[in-house]
Write a sequence for this structure.
């Protein structure tokens, strides 16, 4: 059995750019800034030429960014401490100054891949038989740094998938403080090895739920004899970095879904936010919203992280802790099972395992579900997104890596009440990277971070060669008939 391939595709668009602060000389380290020399050259530009340059820059880049004038002025403020008199500078020259410390970043300039599909929060304005879908995308830009983008699609009428044209410009989120529970923060401190008299004293001054501002207040109250020890500055900085690893990303109400891009904020994700797996989620209190997991990468280490959102516009970003939150590819079940939150995770770099949690942030191992068995998964296996609930059991889309590092798709069927029980599996792939699905930025790869079921059809958006997004589908009954014990 092979999944049906649809003609709908998304390709990487190099004009999907964001603007970011650019400090020449500090690209790889902060040891030598060239800001002083650049500012001197900007200040030496004749006034009439500065006016011309400011008009030219705002005209050329105004359509590519939401408010390019404000962006330039903000970046000018970053370096204005080097000016002899920051106030005595014309608005035009300040715009040129800010633009000199701004650079564009093409978020999908290198690759577009690993999509995850969920029911869109807005189902209005559709024809009978249509369903609107939100699709999270992994976009990869310069330096192989990953961000999370979004697209929209319409399913139906019938067996049809249509991507909605993505809009410009891209918007970055406003970043606000996130909040911690004291229990989760203590667990994170222990996991990071930040257990000492400083952390103990700071914890003593915190309420049950708190933000980074509360931590700063507690730090300021540390006994002087403790805060002035030779190694205290290092411990305090580590505690601050941990605190700031949770945050809230809020997009303007005027943005459409495809204009929103989540970019790295926390230190542990500075080199990328990879492979988001979203699910429409019901918590223990019966509240329905969206949750997603992704892999944070700091250039050396990886860590699974959690996204919570009710509308795909305001996102709460959290750390995950526990022995089951240590590897890539964590995927949440859409509801509690037997009073527990469950997730699929990877263990040993090659197995699909079950994880459990009582609060959704501290996760423990609950046993291996599936290990590589067939030739097409002989190197490793992993999930391709959150389990899909059916009356027959949980359908889990999986990937297998075989010889020549070829990624293919398959599936498992898990027991509804005890997901450690495998009721069936695909002995052969349902989709392989062959023919026009073979080549790309990373060849021999078809991959997904999550599909959904609509009218008894499983829809699976796929990354093809880490270069473009395609779609395949199959009927639930067709897949079930293909499973073996």
């Amino acid at each position: 059995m092979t999944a049906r391939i649809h003609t709908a595709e998304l390709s990487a668009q190099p004009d999907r750019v964001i603007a970011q602060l650019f400090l020449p000389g500090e690209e790889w380290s902060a040891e030598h800034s060239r800001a002083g020399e650049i500012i001197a050259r900007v200040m030496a530009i004749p006034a009439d030429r500065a006016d011309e340059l400011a008009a030219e820059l705002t005209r050329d880049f105004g359509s590519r960014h939401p408010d390019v004038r404000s962006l330039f002025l903000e970046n000018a403020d970053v370096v204005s401490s080097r000016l002899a008199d920051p106030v005595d500078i014309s608005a035009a020259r300040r715009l040129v100054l800010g633009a000199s410390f701004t650079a564009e970043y093409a978020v999908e300039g290198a690759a577009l891949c690993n999509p995850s599909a969920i029911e869109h929060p807005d189902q209005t304005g559709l024809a009978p038989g249509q369903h609107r879908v939100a699709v999270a995308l992994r976009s990869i830009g310069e330096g192989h740094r990953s961000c999370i983008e979004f697209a929209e699609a319409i399913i139906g009428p019938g067996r049809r998938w249509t991507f909605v044209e993505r809009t410009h410009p891209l918007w970055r989120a406003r970043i606000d403080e996130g909040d911690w529970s004291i229990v989760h923060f203590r667990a994170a401190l222990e996991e990071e090895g930040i257990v000492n008299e400083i952390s103990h004293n700071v914890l003593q001054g915190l309420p049950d739920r708190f933000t980074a501002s509360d931590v700063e207040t507690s730090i300021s109250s540390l006994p002087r004899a403790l805060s002035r020890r030779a190694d205290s500055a290092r411990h305090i900085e580590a505690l601050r970095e941990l605190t700031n690893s949770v945050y809230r990303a809020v997009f303007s109400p005027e943005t459409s879904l495809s204009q929103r891009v989540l970019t790295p904020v926390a230190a542990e994700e500075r080199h990328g936010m990879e492979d988001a797996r979203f699910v429409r989620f019901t918590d223990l209190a019966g509240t329905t919203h969206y949750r997603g997991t992704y892999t944070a990468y700091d250039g050396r280490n990886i860590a699974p992280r959690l996204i919570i959102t009710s509308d795909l516009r305001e996102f709460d970003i959290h750390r995950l802790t526990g022995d089951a939150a240590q590897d890539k590819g964590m995927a949440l079940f859409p509801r509690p099972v037997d009073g527990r939150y469950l997730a699929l995770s990877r263990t040993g770099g090659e197995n699909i395992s079950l994880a459990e949690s009582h609060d959704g942030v501290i996760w423990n191992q609950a046993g291996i579900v599936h290990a590589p068995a067939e030739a097409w998964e002989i190197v490793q296996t992993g999930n391709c997104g959150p389990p899909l609930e059916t009356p027959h059991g949980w359908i889990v889309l999986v990937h297998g890596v075989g010889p020549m590092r070829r990624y293919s798709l398959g599936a498992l069927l898990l027991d509804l009440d005890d997901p450690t029980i495998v009721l069936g599996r695909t002995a052969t792939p349902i989709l392989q990277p062959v023919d026009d699905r073979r080549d790309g930025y990373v060849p021999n790869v078809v991959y997904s971070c999550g599909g959904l079921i609509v009218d008894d059809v499983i829809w699976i958006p796929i990354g093809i060669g880490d270069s473009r997004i395609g779609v395949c589908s199959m009927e639930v009954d067709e897949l079930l008939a293909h499973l073996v014990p």
Remarks:
- The first helix runs from residue 35 to 43.
- Residues 16 and 106 are 6 Å apart (CA to CA).
- The chain has three domains: 4-12+107-174+246-482, 18-106, 179-243.
- DSSP finds ten helices and 31 strands in the chain.
